[in-house]
TrEMBL record:
Function, as annotated: Catalyzes the formation of acetyl phosphate from acetate and ATP. Can also catalyze the reverse reaction.
Organism: Paenibacillus zeirhizosphaerae
Positions of the record's site feature: Transition state stabilizer: H180, R241
Binding site for substrate: R91
Protein name: Acetate kinase
Coiled-coil annotated spans: none
Assembly, per entry: Homodimer.
First-level EC class: transferase
InterPro entries: Ac/propionate_kinase, Aliphatic_acid_kin_short-chain, Aliphatic_acid_kinase_CS, ATPase_NBD
Subcellular location: Cytoplasm
Annotated binding of ATP, by residue: K14, H208, I209, G210, N211, G212, D283, M284, R285, G331, V332, G333, E334, N335
Length: 398
């Protein structure tokens, strides 16, 4: 069975084609600058040469048509015909309380995703464009939606409710939903496999640290708390997002600077975080470089960022009354030796002991970076959100 995984953003569309017989990736790629004058398709077939095409792609339907052309192209293609694709799996950010797991796309499911636009105005509309575009191009192929929030639907009320008037929950469903669920789910399962211990017995803290970043407490295989909130803005400091702050700052700044709702949203989501404090970049590699060159603002950004990761690990160890394993994943978590070192070196009170040599190793494989004596296992596990989407799609359409 072959499954096409689609991750649609407002101006981009990422894809991967899986052969589920051995879960191998046949091709992957990306369409960028959708709706702008020169859109770029980058197609990377496994074992064949890469292809780049610049053209005008005004919306997602054309983007998917181009992707299907690339997948069936004589020279760069990996299948003979579109009919070889058995199902399409879509990443959707927000499933609200309606989707506790992945679902086959039906008219009812689409209606529900549309209802959730209110909760995720930046993220769900592009997902819907991706779904519609796939339906137009592949009308007879089943579609599945996989939600970033679904894994966190197991959180208890005490973790997901905000201490604000209850009417805001009953009227608008204002609560914590979390995100990066497919990643936290995947790496916690991989951690249990790596440790060769039953997932049901483990208390794991998973740190997904990429451009966006979130931490989850996974107890017995289910999410019991997570740092992102109703939207991905809460929790850790991120590349361009502020993470946690005193909510009173919002009306204060709006008042002083005469900002609109959109402007303050943009300030907190796009102009805060590492970028705002360093004044250099939202990219951890550049922050680290700046710090090494003695730039004080980069150092402050790095210290604030790592301090907050450490505080969350401490609080989730308290939430679960213990922790067996800490897992680092995603762009920064998998690659930044200095970030992991800075976070972990002051978790000795938990019995964490880091092996510097193991921490310095670079590999794309799951690995342990704690010493044999460490009371907590510390692992680096590359995430694979696309594979989770492909697996769920496979399971649901079979
Ligand atoms: P997202 O999926 O949220 O866009 P990723 O998980 O791909 O993000 O992570 C992207 C981020 O990973 C980049 O912004 C960069 O800061 C960081 N990153 C990648 N490689 C390294 C590295 N070697 N050292 C530190 N940070 C890195």
């Amino acid at each position: 069975m072959k499954i096409l995984v689609i991750n649609a953003g407002s101006s981009s569309l990422k894809y991967q084609l899986y052969n589920m017989t051995d879960e191998s990736v046949l091709a992957k790629g990306l369409v960028e600058r959708i709706g702008m004058d020169s859109s770029i398709l980058t197609h990377k077939p496994t074992n064949k040469s890469e292809m780049t095409e610049v053209s005008e792609i005004l919306e997602h339907t054309t983007a998917i048509r181009k992707v299907l052309h690339a997948l069936t192209d004589k020279e760069h293609g990996v299948i003979d015909s579109i009919d070889e694709i058995d199902a399409v799996g879509h990443r959707v950010v927000h499933g609200g309380e309606s989707f506790k797991e992945s679902a086959v796309v039906t008219e009812e499911a689409k209606k529900e995703i549309r209802r959730l636009f209110d909760l995720a105005p930046l993220h769900n509309p592009p997902s819907m464009m991706g779904i519609k575009a796939a339906e137009v191009n592949m009308p007879s192929i089943p579609q599945v939606v996989v939600f970033d929030t679904a894994f966190h639907q197991t959180m208890p009320e005490k973790a997901y409710m905000y201490a604000i008037p209850r009417v805001l929950y009953s009227k608008y469903k204002v609560r914590r939903y979390g995100a990066h669920g497919t990643s936290h789910d995947y790496v916690s399962k991989e951690a249990a496999k790596f440790l060769d211990r039953p997932l049901e017995d483990l208390k794991i803290i998973t740190c997904h640290i990429g451009n966006g970043a979130s931490i989850t407490a996974v107890q017995g295989g289910v999410s019991v708390d997570t740092s992102m909130g109703m939207t991905p803005l809460e929790g850790l400091m991120m590349g361009t997002r502020s993470g946690d702050l005193d909510p009173a700052i919002v009306p204060f700044v709006m008042n002083k600077e005469e900002l609109t709702v959109n402007e303050v949203n943009s300030m907190l989501n796009k102009h805060s975080g590492l970028l705002a404090i360093s004044g250099v970049s939202s990219d951890m590699r550049e922050i680290t470089e700046g710090m090494e060159k003695g730039d004080a603002n980069s150092k402050l950004a790095f210290d604030m960022y790592t301090y907050r990761v450490r505080k969350y690990i401490g609080s989730y160890a308290a939430a679960m009354n213990g922790v067996d394993a800490i897992v680092f994943t995603a762009g920064v978590g998998e690659n930044s030796t200095v970030l992991r070192e800075q976070v972990l070196k002051e978790l000795t009170f938990l019995g964490v002991e880091i092996d510097e040599a193991l921490n310095a190793i670079r590999s794309g494989e799951p690995r342990r970076i704690s010493t044999e004596q460490s009371k907590v296992e510390v692992l680096v596990i590359p995430t694979n959100e696309e594979l989770v989407i492909a697996r769920d799609t496979f399971r649901l359409v079979q």
